Amino acid sequence: MSGANLVNAVNRRMALRAYPDGMPRPEDFEVLEGPIPDIGEGEVLGRAVYLTVDPYIRVHISPSMSVGYAPTTPLGAAIPGEAVLQVVRSRHPGFAEGDYVAGFGGWQDYCALPGDSLRKVDVGLAPLSAHLGSLGMPGLTAYAGMTQLAEAKAGQTVFVSAALGGVGAVAGQLARIQGCRVVGVSSSAEKCAWAVKELGYDACLDRTSADFADQVAAVCPDGIDVNFENAGGDVFWAAFNNMKAYGRVIVCGLISGYNNDAPPPGPDLTPHLLRYIALKRVVMKGLMVADFWHLRPQFLEEVGGMIRDGRFRSKEYVVEGIENAGNALIDMLEGRNFGKTVVRIADDPA
Fold it and tell me: Residue 9's pLDDT band (boundaries 50, 70, 90)?
């Protein structure tokens, strides 16, 4: 839709009706309508084509978990998240009507954003939706973790939880391309088979298996050099108990705990954690992508090159319609997605 055809258009947004108590429910979400925003000098009005669905969004919609991370999403406001948009109006010299861009527009049809906060999307490099995954913030997160924090060397074992997700799939493939032995974790045998066959993982384990911890020990008999941690919970402990001396744990996400507003009941495992860190000299490093925005140009050049020459692959779980964005988040949190989750809310003319 061009800027000239917006007079009677409305802006739909997916908002919270109530803050989730534990796992979100469909009734926690609602689609509201409002006017299309105006733009000021230096701003761009974009119409969203794809919306991202990532674990961090669950933190944004939790009044307790968002403390120290990001402002809590107000009830009735568009749920935050990155989007691929087509420019329909521009008052910024760097963007013209029809351009494709990516930015944090939230779960809504239209958004007004400062042009300096947007990045142009190369429609010839990969599908539009890939700019929310392997070429978007999840991909940059994985790239930063692997290149700046992991210190992984060829021949070392890298353990990646949520191995087919937006971050995990990039981290695992970067490790493989570096010559590492890569062990992934996912939520079904089907997903694990795909990770091995299509992404080149050396092994992938189903975290729902009753003997999952034993499988980790068996597949990593010499220990784990790098744990790229996206899951937390039992997956974390299975990896942590098999860390090598001087191993590195890159703490990127804890998706297993994002629906818990308080620590789970049970014994205090802090003594075990600290003792193991000391005995094995394990280093734990927190990963926040905000520290690495400056790497975006080199990330796009390197990972974009890997996509061009066929060394890198991705898989997406595409949900249709803004009204289903809340369900898409629930699917991801419950492990029903197969690949990076995105929501298509407009035709993809690219």
Answer: confident
Whether residue 259 contacts residue 238, with contact meaning beta carbons closer than 8 Å, is answered with no
**47-73: burial string, b at 16+ Cβ within 10 Å, e else:** bbbbbbbbbbbbbbbbeebbeeeeebb
CA–CA dist 301, 314 (Å, integer): 17
CATH fold of the domain at 3-133+314-344? Quinone Oxidoreductase; Chain A, domain 1 (3.90.180)
Task: Return the amino acid letter for 63.
Answer: P
**pTM for the full model?**
0.92
**165 φ, ψ (degrees, to nearest 5):** -75, 180
* Res. 68: pLDDT tops 70: no
Quote the longest CA-to-CA distance of the chain: 67
In degrees, rounded to 5, the angle at the alpha carbon of residue 271 between the alpha carbons of residues 267 and 273 is: 100
Q: Which residue has the higher pLDDT, 256 or 4?
A: 256
CA 42/CA 44 separation, integer angstroms: 7
Secondary structure of residue 349 in the 3-state scheme: coil
Tokens 């911890």 locate to: 213
Q: Which residues contact 8 (CB under 8 A, 6 or more apart)?
A: none
Beta pairing, strands 181-186 & 157-160: parallel
Beta-carbon contacts of 266 under 8 Å, excluding residues fewer than 6 positions away, are none
| Predicted confidence (pLDDT) at residue 10 exceeds the cutoff of 80 | yes
Task: Check if CATH label 3.40.50.720 holds for domain 137-290.
Answer: yes
Pair 2, 88: CB distance under 8 Å: yes
Q: Closest by alpha carbon to 296, among 180, 152, 138?
A: 138
Q: Which residues pair with 286 in a beta bridge?
A: 251
Residues 102, 228, 70, 66, Cα dihedral to 10°: 130
Closest CA to 148 of 311, 5, 291, 12: 291
Q: What's the CA gap between 350 and 102, in Å, rounded?
A: 14
8 Å CB contact between 170 and 162: no
| Sequence ranges of the domains in the chain | 3-133+314-344, 137-290
Alpha helix positions (H), 78-207? 137-144, 168-177, 189-199
